[in-house]
Amino acid sequence: MRGFDSRPGLKLTLGGWSRIVPEEKEALMINTDRVAVISEHYDQFALRDAESPHWLDSFTYGVLTNMTGACAILEIGCGNGRAIPVFEQFRDRSTNHARNLTYTGIDCSKKSLDVARKLYHGYSFIEGDGFRVSEYFPEQRFDMVWLGAVLMIYSPKEARLLLQEVRKVLTNEAVGFVSVPYGEGTYHPPTLPENVQYHRYNADAMEYILGDLYEPIEARVSGGMLLVTFRVK
Ligand SMILES: C[S@@+](CC[C@H](N)C(=O)[O-])C[C@H]1O[C@@H](n2cnc3c(N)ncnc32)[C@H](O)[C@@H]1O
To answer: How far apart are CA 35 and CA 129, in angstroms?
Structure first.
């Protein structure tokens, strides 16, 4: 998330995106070994940006103000919890809602969660796999899902499946936020394990992963990242 900033960025036109990614009918199994590789990788970076300044710009504030009443936030791939201050700032500034903010962070990196638990008290952290989120919360429903710099680890097909799984634990009025590197194709930063690559997302890929379950609220590109807010359809 380095380079993420609040400068006004390019606003994408929503609603007219053409669907260029074909529908994937087959269920795609996410290999648990792969998630193990990913968690091992992120264990090494458990402290990264742990206490870097946080951003609550008009865009992120925008998605948060779409929430009313009791506000149960689910963050998938929460890492060391560095987004929590965003929610805290929002709660503290909020005059009419989100006072009852609850937060649950899920991550597959145990070491990152160890850091999160030390830094942020009064929140719930679960070591787990986002692709199995409905198993962890058979009853509970969330008002918002936050996925900051997580989906880039997955192809659009995988990301779509992840969002389908996430829908099972959201209320019908829920909203969400995702950030992913903007563009096309894949890349491989040298620190990543050989069999993991990062995916860039453009508007078509984003529309594909939101599928029929969600609709975009707003999108923009800032600091090389595509930031999208969405709501359940
Ligand atoms: C680039 S880090 C971003 C961390 C945090 N969201 C932030 O903005 O600082 C990606 C995080 O997603 C986690 N992650 C990746 N795949 C996951 C999965 N299937 N289930 C749970 N966490 C996952 C990684 O362990 C890592 O902590």
So the answer is: 7
Sign of the C-alpha dihedral, residues 79, 82, 83, 84? Answer: positive
Is 148 close to ligand 1, i.e. is its CB under 6 Å away?
A: yes
Atom of ligand 1 nearest to the CA of 42: 25
Nearest to 58 by CA among 31, 82, 80, 86: 86
CATH class of domain segment(s) 66-232: alpha beta
Mapping DSSP to helix (H, G, I), strand (E, B) and coil, where does residue 158 land? helix
- Stretch 80-96: mean pLDDT, rounded? 82
Confidence of residue 148 (pLDDT cuts 50, 70, 90): very high
Domain ranges across the chain = 66-232
> What pLDDT digit, counting tens, does each position of 18-43 carry?
333 333 433 344 567 778 889 999 99
Tokens 């380095």, located at residue: 2
**Number of Cβ atoms within 10 Å of the Cβ of 159:** 24
Q: Best mutation site among 38, 48, 74, 178 for ligand 1, i.e. most ligand atoms within 8 A of its Cβ?
A: 38
Reported confidence tier of residue 16, pLDDT bands at 50, 70, 90: very low
CA 163 – CA 160 distance, rounded (Å): 5
Q: Does pLDDT of 50 surpass 50?
A: yes
Q: Give dist(CA 87, CA 7) in Å, integer.
A: 20
Q: Is the CB of 107 under 6 A from ligand 1?
A: yes
- Residue 39 in contact with ligand 1 by CB distance below 6 A: yes
Task: Please give the average per-residue pLDDT across 188-212, as a whole number.
Answer: 92
